[in-house]
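Notes from hallway chat w/ T.B., transcribed later so I don't forget. T.B. wanted the structure written out for a chain they're using in a teaching module, and asked if we could keep both sequence and structure tokens in one place. Agreed to drop them here.
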Amino acid sequence: MIHPASAWAFIALTMGLGKTLIGLRDMDRLLTESQLLNQPSGRLFLVAASTQAILDSWPQKAHKFGLAHLLDYLAFTTYRSLAKTLAAGSY
């Protein structure tokens, strides 16, 4: 089992290669293959991006790829707000 507090993943690809889909599928895999659902309540995944527009595309793409159930487990922040967001919660 992957311990959520120590499980970090980063994706660095150019535009249009499927970073969002890769991230969503991996989050879905983590939820279905592990005990993450037995963790304390709250958001399990934090998605950070450079702009709010990028973050706003995640829910649309989750619906498009049939992974909308993940939205209950996701929190979003921009890089500028990352430190504040991390201080306020556990991901």
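Follow-up for T.B.: The longest strand covers residues 45-49. Might be a good example for the class.
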